[in-house]
Amino acid sequence: MFRSEYADVPPVDLPIHEAVLGRAAYFGGHPALIDGTDGATLTYEQLDRYHRRLAAAFAEAGVRKGDVLALHSPNTIAFPTAFYAATRAGAAVTTVHPLATPEEFARQLADSAARWIVTVSPLLASARRAAELAGGVREIFVCDNAPGHRSLTGLLATTAPEPRIDLDPAEDVAALPYSSGTTGTPKGVMLTHRQIATNLAQLEPAVPAGPGDRILAVLPFFHIYGLTALMNAPLRHGATVVVLPRFDLETFLAAIETHRITGLYVAPPIVLALAGHPAVDRHDLSSLEYVISAAAPLDARLAAACGERLGLPPVGQAYGMTELSPGTHVVPLDRMRQAPAGTVGKLIAGTEMRIVPLDGPGEDLPAGEPGEILIRGPQVMKGYLGRPDATADMIDAEGWLHTGDVGHVDADGWLFVVDRVKELIKYKGFQVAPAELEALLLTHPGIADAAVVGARDENGNEIPHAFVVRRQTPDGPTENEIMLYVAERVAPYKRVRKVSFVEDVPRAASGKILRRQLREHT
Asked: What are the tens digits of pLDDT across the range 252-270?
């Protein structure tokens, strides 16, 4: 068993809005959130006051403890206000991908039993259709303005009293993001107030922050990585978060220069752009002190090249998953130059790890031996919503979460993730479940069988590659027709990027797809 070298941290038994904004009065007029496109700013005092007023308005509208509110928005300075207002009103927040199709959105609404939606006017048509398909939604609010819908700004005028909700941080769910786990279709991950808040405390010794830090939030808040690294963690410590709604390289670089950004939390595609795009040389990025990448594997050579170009240590990595609130490992900021190439970091405070054989029960493996990574700690999720069997498959009786990732630890305790047992595809940091795409492909009248695996494109990104068995018809579907069929029915990041036609899909006697055989042909 491997244990963190950092001292254990006590559980943070606070609602997440208190754990993050408990010192907002102390930070007062210091900027908390800045819109990176137009400069609009919320101070800590305003963020604290606005989220309390909005919580009162939500409660007045009928939001009650135990309700679920769906937050369906790109990154804006209103997103944190809505999130903390909902939790203060007693609701759990299920975060929704802004580009989800109405059908995908509706499935999440129905599965989570969400009764409320907060969205933005450009996404309103999708939200309305999803609410219609799912049923049970009482009201759709908008962050900006739209006819027929109450706006968050308008709700701030309420004179209703601030709700006083008796929350149990250890049991009550604060966030309900959706994850595919190691395989299968997306499932609601129940993360309690204590789990999320404690994970912030666990990360603090390795990646400290303070009022002098300026963090650029371009990765989405709806993803647990963005929710933790770009929203909860910096706001807990009085840092300033500069918010961008999407990644555009010129806007991103200009924001770093204009706002004197000190820290970046990114995914590998952004590291690739920073390492190689000529636009980087046209901007003053000298304020940057570090870059950390997570959500997908990062090539060690690319990490070094990016650091060298920016005059920084190699890009550090972090490791975790939605089911772990999400962090378990990170390269500490004070050891980024000493960290071995390719490592995803050291165990954070209060976290234990085992490396176990891939071929069944046996003795735990020592340093240097690759095996499946198991994690235990206070950040392990409460479970999958309404899926006790899936939860039991993921977390064993002793509390160890089986990540489905293959890794090894060196003699100094640095973890290296080398492969995946799990079938999940990570396209630019977003989870794509093969089973979901396979089920969709089989609805095409010209497809008899299908399997989807992860493959690498020319930029090193993992992409969904479909192997398709066509029905015996004169005019079977072409590769482009199949990719278009999928693209019309899923969010952009889930699209099939390559199709190969095969005579049959290899399967075990049990019927399980032998994906490893297919990967040999990608």
From this structure: 999 999 999 999 999 888 9
